[in-house]
């Protein structure tokens, strides 16, 4: 019980930080995305060199957890919707411009795709994988599989062309077709495909981790 209370208090503090970061998404979201990219790229090299990855894993844990809070609210008891400031930032993205909300989501998904790479997976701890899955689930509840979608994305995934996609190939496809918010025609099926594969990897490669399995 004490552990649950501590985790809840931690998330409450991160929620406050997320509110601050959402105030200026055009500048803060790219910064968060860059942190994820840099930490993710550094981790395999750290492991290959024989260095202690503990500090880097901790930094990546905090960054991933914070991104989950920034991109989506808890939504407990309500239909999850994108935060107002992020929805406005996405809507104001000019044609052909980089959508800061989509780009941060891509960075988060790409981080999760480390679980699909046999070399990168060895660098992941169960604790980090758990918070990656938590952040992706929170994001998916809001942007991919909210209650008012009617299940269309679930059907669309079976019609997605190109077969099984892995690693960064999945995340890179999310940018095709412009800056939409992961609609069926703009990266939604590929994102759902990635989440299914990441979830399957988490179940199969960390079988004894009860909290991760949940």
Automatic annotation (TrEMBL):
Domain of life (superkingdom): Eukaryota
Annotated region described as Disordered, given as residue ranges: 74-94
Keywords associated with the record: Cytoplasm, Nucleus, Protein transport, Transport
Subcellular location: Cytoplasm; Nucleus
The keyword Transit peptide is assigned to this record: no
A single cellular component GO annotation: cytoplasm
A GO MF term: nuclear export signal receptor activity
InterPro entries reported in the protein's UniProt record: XPO4/7-like
Protein family: Belongs to the exportin family.
Protein's UniProt name: Uncharacterized protein
Organism field: Ostreococcus mediterraneus
């Amino acid at each position: 019980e004490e552990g649950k209370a501590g985790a809840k208090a931690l998330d409450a503090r991160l929620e406050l930080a997320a509110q601050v970061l959402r105030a200026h998404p055009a500048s803060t979201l790219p910064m968060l995305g860059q942190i994820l990219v840099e930490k993710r790229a550094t981790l395999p090299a750290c492991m290959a060199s024989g260095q202690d990855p503990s500090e880097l894993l901790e930094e990546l844990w905090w960054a991933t957890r914070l991104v989950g809070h920034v991109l989506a609210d808890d939504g407990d008891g309500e239909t999850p919707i994108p935060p107002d400031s992020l929805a406005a930032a996405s809507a104001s993205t000019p044609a052909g411009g980089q959508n800061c909300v989509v780009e941060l989501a891509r960075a988060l998904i790409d981080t999760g795709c480390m679980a699909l790479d046999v070399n990168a997976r060895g660098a992941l701890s169960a604790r980090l994988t758990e918070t990656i899955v938590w952040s992706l689930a929170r994001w998916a509840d809001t942007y991919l599989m909210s209650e008012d979608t009617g299940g269309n994305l679930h059907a669309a995934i079976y019609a997605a062309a190109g077969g099984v996609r892995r690693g960064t190939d999945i995340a890179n496809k999310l940018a095709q077709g412009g800056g939409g918010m992961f609609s069926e025609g703009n990266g939604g099926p590929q994102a759902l495909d990635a989440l299914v594969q990441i979830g399957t990897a988490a179940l199969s490669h960390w079988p004894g981790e009860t909290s991760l399995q949940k």
